[in-house]
From TrEMBL:
Active site: E254
Family: Belongs to the aldehyde dehydrogenase family.
InterPro entries: Ald_DH/histidinol_DH, Ald_DH_C, Ald_DH_CS_CYS, Ald_DH_CS_GLU, Ald_DH_N, Aldehyde_DH_dom, Aldehyde_DH_Superfamily
SUPFAM superfamilies associated with the record: ALDH-like
Organism: Rhizosphaericola mali
Protein name, as recorded: NAD-dependent succinate-semialdehyde dehydrogenase
Domain of life per record: Bacteria
All residue ranges annotated as the Aldehyde dehydrogenase domain in the record: 18-475
A GO MF term: succinate-semialdehyde dehydrogenase (NAD+) activity
Protein's GO biological process: gamma-aminobutyric acid catabolic process
Keywords assigned: Oxidoreductase
Cross-referenced CDD domains: ALDH_F5_SSADH_GabD
Length: 481
């Protein structure tokens, strides 16, 4: 285990200072061992309001900086994260159970958003529009939207923060981050590094506390907060949307998923298995773009199930710091109970467990393959968020498309095929914000990430990602002679 205690903090970071409301605290626990890592001070909506005030007061000077100067500070933050990535990865693995190599990968991925938007800060272009009369000159410019509230989940404790606040900061906004109480330590560590990079006091604030609902409500009801960016469940996204209605906030919502992986008859089966395992079992299946349903053509079904099951049996389960670990624990007991429910429901409706299906000591759930899955099973419509891979059978392309689209969600989707006509047709027919063709890992800072239907609104990453943190202003100059 790498040295990490120099980046281990217990208090929230507000207006450039470590802050606590009282001596009330809660334990952050390692899901691999069920042992306490550290006790963190529990803050409430009172601290959120202090952070909002700090962000609001700091923003005028921050947005007034030249884009190049904001870019320079962002790049210093990027460098500091990389200089401390082993310590951050250790903290991340301790609090999430994520395999250490996955934690390092997340740091590279999450820091890339800081680097990307440091450059985009200098490219926040507007337009010159021909005047509608000879004495008019028209310009359109982009300006920062205002204070941004970022509410982030436990499964990517660094990347979900940087993907939201890097574009906000680049645009000239100040931010208040409310990380998950399950994984607050990574958030506090990177906020300390941001302070060291030179962000002015109040520009980045991180508030940790147990009462998520009241803290979220304080962000939504504040007239000083212009935008909320949230990653989490569809149910909570709907609540935040309703709570933000009175203040007419702009919202970016990255919500639930039910990702299909379609394996067509002409697919390279070995490549498809490799891609499906990558897309299904990353962080024990606890990501919003994880493969939720595997749809396989009937002519290759038995071959795929046999080879896929064999590959899943080879996955190594263990503590995140063990050298060869590929599957760590799930996040808590609720996740174990949810996995048990899905397996029991599937078996009761005719599903066959090909491997896995059992709990190992503590919060470890075996990677599970369920064959003969049907659309009346609960995981056909619900997000699994665990290491369970149900395999469905289809006969025609249209049946596969209809099965894939038969969900309220529309975040990520995947399929394998060699036929260019099929690739074009299916890519266009899938009702999802993201389509991976012959690829199981699709996330990058250079692409627009987001969904349709009940998977949310807005896009994060890419050149489009900064747009949601700005407002367009039209300027008309008259009387030109």
């Amino acid at each position: 285990m790498k040295p990490y205690k120099h980046l281990l903090f217990r208090q929230s970071f507000i207006n450039g200072k470590w802050t606590k409301e009282s001596d009330k605290n809660f334990d952050v626990v390692n899901p691999s061992t069920d042992k306490k890592i550290i006790s963190v001070y529990d803050n409430s909506e009172k601290s959120i309001k202090k952070a909002i005030d700090a962000a609001y007061l700091s923003m005028p000077k921050w947005k007034a900086l030249a884009a190049k100067d904001r870019s320079t500070i962002l790049l210093k933050w990027f460098d500091l994260i990389h200089a401390n990535k082993e310590a951050i990865a250790t903290i991340m693995t301790l609090e999430s159970g994520k395999p250490y190599q996955e934690s390092l990968g997340e740091i590279n991925y999450g820091a890339a958003f800081i680097q990307w938007f440091a450059e985009e800060a200098k490219r926040m272009y507007g337009d010159i529009i021909p005047g509608f009369s000879a004495d008019k000159r028209i310009a359109v410019i982009r300006q920062p939207i205002g204070v941004v509230g970022a509410i982030t989940p436990w499964n990517f404790p660094l990347a979900m923060i940087t993907r939201k606040i890097a574009p906000a900061l680049a645009a000239g906004c100040s931010v208040v981050v409310r990380p998950s109480e399950l994984t607050p330590l990574t958030a506090l560590a990177i906020n300390k590094l941001a302070h060291d990079a030179g962000f002015p006091n109040g520009v980045i604030n991180t508030v940790v506390g147990l009462d998520a609902s009241k803290m979220g409500l304080a962000l939504c009801e504040s007239d000083k907060v212009a935008k909320i960016s949230f990653t989490g469940s569809t149910r909570v996204g709907q609540i935040l949307s309703a709570q933000s209605a009175q203040t007419l906030k702009k919202l970016s919502l990255e919500l639930g998923g039910n990702a299909p992986m379609i394996i067509f008859e002409d697919a390279d089966i070995d490549a498809a298995i490799k891609g499906t395992i990558a897309g299904k079992f990353r962080f024990s299946g606890q990501t919003c773009v994880c493969v939720n349903r595997i749809l396989v053509h009937e002519n290759i079904y038995e071959t795929f199930v046999k080879k896929f099951t064999s590959a899943v049996k080879d996955l190594v389960i263990g503590d995140g710091f063990a050298k060869n670990t590929q599957i760590g624990p799930v996040i808590n007991q609720k996740a174990i109970e949810k996995a048990q429910f899905f397996v029991k429901d599937a078996v009761s409706k005719g599903g066959k467990i090909k491997t896995g299906g059992k709990i190992r000591k503590g919060l470890f759930f075996e990677p599970t393959v369920i064959a003969d899955a049907t659309e009346d099973m609960n995981f056909a419509q619900e997000e699994i968020f665990g290491p369970i891979a149900p395999i469905f059978k289809f006969s025609t392309d249209q049946e596969a498309i209809d099965m894939a689209n038969n969900t309220i969600f529309g975040l990520a989707s995947y399929f394998y095929s060699k036929d260019i006509n099929r690739i074009i047709k299916v890519s266009e027919a899938l009702e999802y914000g993201i389509v991976g063709v012959n690829e199981g890992l699709i996330s990058s800072e250079v692409v627009p990430f987001g969904g349709v239907k009940y998977s949310g609104t807005g896009r994060e990453g890419s050149k489009y990602g900064i747009e949601d943190y700005t407002e367009l202003k039209y300027i008309c100059v008259g009387g030109v002679q």
